[in-house]
Each structure stands twice: as structure tokens, then as C-alpha cells.
């Protein structure tokens, strides 16, 4: 029972005693349903007829010609609601229905997970509350309005930095108080076990699809690249290639510099510790407190990372690098103007890593997970004067 909660030395259940029965019930129901034919048939129908799966793999020919490698994009931005987040919320909402609960709560940074949660709440007829840092409420206003239109209550969290960490703290507190009637849909592969396992399971559809699609197109990618905050889109696509002969790259938010509070390089600059119920790498102060972090991308503005990424980093199966805000903004502009695709700032970090390291990728087939679309980020783009 103890070892299965961990990925190497990372993971676990560092939560109040009152949550243990709910977590045990959740784990039991998930293990019962993940291989259940009826549950999976219902989920598959939602994926195909509601969410728009499969999403295509697209060869970005103009960028390929410009940077000397074959760049392919897994188009999760074409999902209903505009990001990969809906894979997980559809799966967890279905779990919630099978558990007999009628209320869901969530935390969100960029708002994509909040919108995806509000969407499934409307679809399943569930009450929904989304916790969001006050800073993110301001910089992701379009997504706040989308959540409210879908019927969700958006609670702005003003404590601390007013970002994803504080929103997650508030959601966990609320879950402790209402666990008998409420399911907490965590948006990334963070939190106490079994949440990392559940989220990775529902997001693995990205990699499974991409693996088949690349094979049908006649190749296996030499490299797979994804941005990493908590790490849900990255583990989703990596799960299709972990056993293949290809290099895997996770790209963290380098912010504006390596000075304290100016980046979100959890693996590059962090140390192991406990946050939000899990033991993993965290960006910390010299006094071992959780540090404030920075990224132009609200979805990457988080001081921790999923425990499975911590393990993959330690064993060296995935290489984790970083790009700065300005490099991500350049990639945002490059994809928009060369291919007519406006990416999320999160996804722009993954593409920026390929552009900034073009000599490393020269002549190779590179699959980039385009995890979300960028219309939600237009306020930040306009503020920077990029257009």
C-alpha cells in the first residue's frame, strides 16, 4: 500500500486525516472503473462526440523550413474549450457521477482547467466552484467570464501572491470542509495520491493518439517536447513514447532571470519538499519556505511539479530545460505569423525550446505538444506591446 503511492521517492499522501476516507473511496472507484467497459465506452463517446478527439498531428512546414528540423504539432488546442484540460475533467466528472456526488470544485491558474471544469459541470448538471488567484483573475479575465457564463462560481483568492499556489490552498481547504458531498478535480498531476495517477491516466490519450498518428504518417519522432508546470500535458504525451527510442524534453518557465521569485524552474532550481499533499521538487527560499515564482504564463506560474516528473528527472529518462518569458513570446509570434496558429503562452514555451536550441534539433523529427490556444492570453500580449 505504501510503495504504490510513490514514484521513486516522490508522491505520497501528506493530507489531513479527515481526507483519507474520501481519498481511499476515490482510489477504489478509480481502480474499479479505469478498466470497466461501460465506463470507458461512455468516456470514449464523450471524447469523440463532445470534446472533438482525436486531435490531429500537423506538420508545421513553414517553421520546419525556417529552423532546419521537421516540427510536428499535436493540436490539443483544437479540443472543445481550447486545451488538453478537458481530457481530465471529462474523466473525473464521470468518476464523480459514478461516486454519486453532485458538486465539484477546482483550482485554476491560466483558467483553462477552470473553464474545462465549469464546462463538464454544466454538461453533467453539477454545482461548481472554481478557486483562482486574484492576480490570475485579472490577467485571464476572458476565461473568468467563460466560467461564469457556464454557471460556475469563481472565487478570487487574494492571499499571498494571488496565483495558482494560493488557489490550490483554498481549494484544498474547501475540500476538507465539504468532502462528503464534493469532489475536487485537481487540474494537474500534483496533489496527494491517487490524483497524479488519475490525471496521468486521463491525459494519456494524448500520447496514445500521437503515437498511432505518427506511425500512420510513417515515422516515429526523434524528440517529443512539452511545457511543464504541474506537468499534465507533458505526462499525457510522454506516456505514448516512454518506451520508444526517442528523446523526451520537458520545458519549465524560466521567467525573466534566475534571481529569487523571477522564475518557476522547479526542477532546475528547486529542492524536494512537501506541497499540496505530495513530496516533490519545489522552488524554495533559503529558509526552506515555498518561494514566490514568476512566469508570463499563468499556467506555469507554480512552485511545484508532479511527482512522476521528479522521478523521470532523477532517472534521466526526460531532460528538463527552460526558456525565458521573452523567448516564449517570440515563439508565440513565430507560430502565429508563420503557420496561422495562435498558441497558449504555456505551449509557446515548448516551441521556444525547439527554436532556441535549433542546432540540437537540426535534421530531426520533433513532436511538440500544443497544449492550448492563445486567445486567452491576448491581454498579456497587448500589455507587452507585441502587436
> What does the main sheet amount to?
6 strands, mixed
Number of helices: 17
Radius of gyration, in angstroms, nearest whole number: 19 Å
Separation of termini? 54 Å
Low-confidence stretches: none
Backbone structural class: alpha/beta
**How many E-type strands?**
14
Strand order of the largest sheet: 3-4-14-9-10-13
Form type: globular
Mean pLDDT: 95
**Percent of residues in helical segments?**
40-55%
Q: Regarding quaternary structure, how should these chains be classified?
A: single chain
Quick one: CATH class of the largest domain?
Answer: Alpha Beta
Descriptive terms for the model:
Rossmann fold, 14 strands, 6-stranded mixed sheet, alpha/beta, about 375 residues, globular, 2 domains
Walk me through this protein's architecture.
- The protein has 387 residues and is of the alpha/beta class.
- The chain has helices spanning 20-33, 37-51, 61-67, 85-99, 112-124, 134-139, 141-149, 164-178, 195-203, 205-216, 232-238, 266-269, 307-315, 325-339, 345-356, 358-361, 378-384; strands at 6-7, 10-11, 57-59, 70-75, 103-108, 127-133, 153-157, 182-184, 223-227, 247-253, 271-275, 278-282, 318-323, 365-370.
- The protein has two domains: 6-47 and 84-195, Rossmann fold (3-Layer(aba) Sandwich), CATH 3.40.50; 54-82 and 204-384, Rossmann fold (3-Layer(aba) Sandwich).
- It is built from 17 helices and 14 strands.
- Helix 2 (37-51) crosses helix 4 (85-99), helix 4 packs across helix 9 (195-203) and helix 5 (112-124) runs parallel beside helix 7 (141-149).
- The chain is globular, with a radius of gyration of 19 Å.
- The N and C termini lie far apart (54 Å).
- The relative contact order is 0.16.
- InterPro entries: Trp_synth_b_CS, Trp_synth_beta, Trp_synth_beta/beta-like, TrpB-like_PALP, TrpB-like_PALP_sf.
- This is Tryptophan synthase beta chain.
